[in-house]
Design goal:
With 144 residues, the chain is of the alpha+beta class. The protein contains six helices and six strands, in the order H-H-E-H-H-E-E-E-E-H-E-H.
Length: 144
């Protein structure tokens, strides 16, 4: 997903294009990682004085509902990132420190489906949490 695609999805669904929404989408496009609502607020509060968490959450929820953003929960906090632009089935490695992600193309459900013959699986979500190489180095330095 990119900004132009996201704006087209919004327009096609009858939602207004506002500078605030465009700036939120630009932030996600530039960051390429999971962001919390507080990250969005911090990034945009100088541009939009009086910007509230309610406004941010409403827009993040809308973007998620429209398939523009993906949502996960890290350490009890909802975080968001641009939806993947690839159509192939994959999962993610997610750094719990910086929020960067990496695609995993192996799916554990491939072997699991065979062992469940009395249950109709209609979907799944699989995420692996840890530290990227950059953040792992910071963790090791803090332990010393």
């Amino acid at each position: 997903m990119n900004i132009e695609q996201a704006l087209k999805v919004m327009k096609d669904q009858g939602y207004k294009h506002t500078d605030k929404r465009a700036d939120i989408l630009t932030l996600f496009s530039n960051e390429k990682r999971y962001l919390a609502a507080k990250d969005v607020l911090q990034a945009l509060q100088d541009t939009y004085t009086g910007l509230s968490f309610d406004t941010i959450y409403r827009n993040l929820s809308l973007f998620t509902e429209l398939g523009i953003l993906e949502e996960t929960e890290l350490e009890g906090e909802k975080k968001f990132r641009f939806a993947c632009s690839t159509d192939d089935h994959h999962h993610h490695l997610i750094c719990v420190d910086c929020g960067k992600t990496k695609h995993v193309h192996n799916c554990p459900m491939d072997s699991f489906k065979e062992s469940v013959d009395d249950f109709q699986i209609i979907g799944h979500k699989f995420e692996i949490y840890g530290y990227c190489s950059e953040c792992e180095g910071k963790q090791e330095a803090n332990e010393v």
